[in-house]
């Protein structure tokens, strides 16, 4: 009897010890959130505090204007209109947003990432070449390119955090919607964040990292600053 009790106890404790832990930390909603003791110096997650629900109106949950293109970016030939926490306050804490992207002929949304969100691309007009890089878990120096040529009605998903691009290969405009599972998907543009950081990354680090010489690095800095 005592032996049976011992085995049962051991079995139960083994089960409990091997059980997964169900508590988890939330995903961050911002890049950094340094703790402060002074409430006067504090900001809230994404810099937003909630309105008294009694004061909320339908307009807090409404945005108008996704039917027209945003302003064109001259360097790369794309324009964006964001329906996110900054333009639709009702999105706060809902974990969803949408962006309209207009690509000029040959326009490019350069290599970038959204650390906080998966991106679902739906093409409305034109032809968009979209791709993302999946790191090779076995080799730090390698990745695989997953890419597709998308036409109106085509949908492509880009997993959270991966480096991606979208490019208009045609000679007419292209438009797509990018939906995100974040209220504030925040883009990091790879070229400019590397070559136009403030303060700058040391030339030597960039030259070694990209296997270029310092003159070429200086040229790249000039292009992105
Ligand atoms: C916050 O205040 C406590 C008590 O005054 C102090 O011990 C602690 O170091 C402070 N933390 C920060 C991040 O300032
Ligand atoms: C876009 O939608 C707004 C709001 O409904 C409307 O005022 C505007 O005329 C529309 N623009 C175009 C080009 O359809
Ligand atoms: C485009 O830019 C102009 C001038 O900067 C601005 O007034 C306008 O609101 C912008 N339009 C859109 C759709 O962002």
Architecture blueprint of SSEs:
Elements lengths: L1 H17 L59 E6 L13 E7 L4 E7 L4 E7 L2 E9 L2 E12 L4 E4 L5 E5 L5 E7 L6 E3 H6 L7 H8 L3 H11 L1
Antiparallel strand pairs: 1-2, 2-9, 3-8, 3-10, 4-7, 4-9, 5-6, 5-8
This protein binds 2-acetamido-2-deoxy-beta-D-glucopyranose (3 copies).
Task: Describe what you observe in this structure.
With 225 residues, this protein is of the alpha+beta class. It has a single domain, classed as Jelly Rolls. The protein is 19% helix and 30% strand. It has helices spanning 2-18, 190-195, 203-210, 214-224, and strands at 78-83, 97-103, 108-114, 119-125, 128-136, 139-150, 155-158, 164-168, 174-180, 187-189. The strands form two sheets. Strands 1-2-9-4-7 form a five-stranded antiparallel beta sheet, with no helix packed on it. Strands 6-5-8-3-10 form a five-stranded antiparallel beta sheet. Strand 5 and strand 6 form a beta hairpin. Helix 3 (203-210) crosses helix 4 (214-224). The protein is globular, with a radius of gyration of 24 Å. The protein starts with a helix and ends with a helix. 19% of the residues are buried. Bound molecules: 2-acetamido-2-deoxy-beta-D-glucopyranose (NAG) (3 copies). One 2-acetamido-2-deoxy-beta-D-glucopyranose is lined by residues 35, 37. One 2-acetamido-2-deoxy-beta-D-glucopyranose binds next to loops.
